[in-house]
Design goal:
This protein has helices at about 5, 15-20, 35, 40-55, 70-95; strands at about 20-25, 30. The chain has about 100 residues and is mostly helical. It has two domains: about 1-40, no CATH class; about 40-100, no CATH class. Strands 1-2 form a two-stranded antiparallel sheet. α4 crosses α5 (about 70-95). The model has no long low-confidence stretch (mean pLDDT about 85).
Length: about 100
């Protein structure tokens, strides 16, 4: 089952779980999980699948970034930037750095 199915209610845990805070970062901060569900649109689902395919298989046309449309490359760059930011935060927390809670 995909993440979208989880978000859209197929496997919602409970009212308590849906009320738990999720940190969306600036400028949103902590929001209840139930408020995140509507943000996961079909367009975002498609973008996540494209990024996952890129992570697994590389660029689809085999010509490097010049072989891809600019919109696709912008999407990949945005997701990769977020991925690198999260990895950095996780490493910092694991090392007991400033991001540790």
């Amino acid at each position: 089952m995909g993440f979208r199915a989880l978000l859209m209610g197929v496997e919602r845990k409970s009212d308590w779980y849906d009320g738990q805070p999720v940190d969306l970062g600036a400028p949103y901060g902590l929001v209840p999980r139930r408020d995140v569900y509507p943000l996961y649109t079909d367009d975002l689902d498609h973008a996540v699948r494209l990024w996952k395919d890129f992570r697994r298989f590389g660029l689809p046309h085999g010509g490097g970034s010049a072989g891809e449309c600019e919109e696709y490359m912008a999407l990949i760059r945005a997701f990769e930037d977020e991925y690198e930011t999260v990895l950095s935060m996780v490493k910092e927390r694991a090392a007991g750095g400033a991001g540790a809670h």
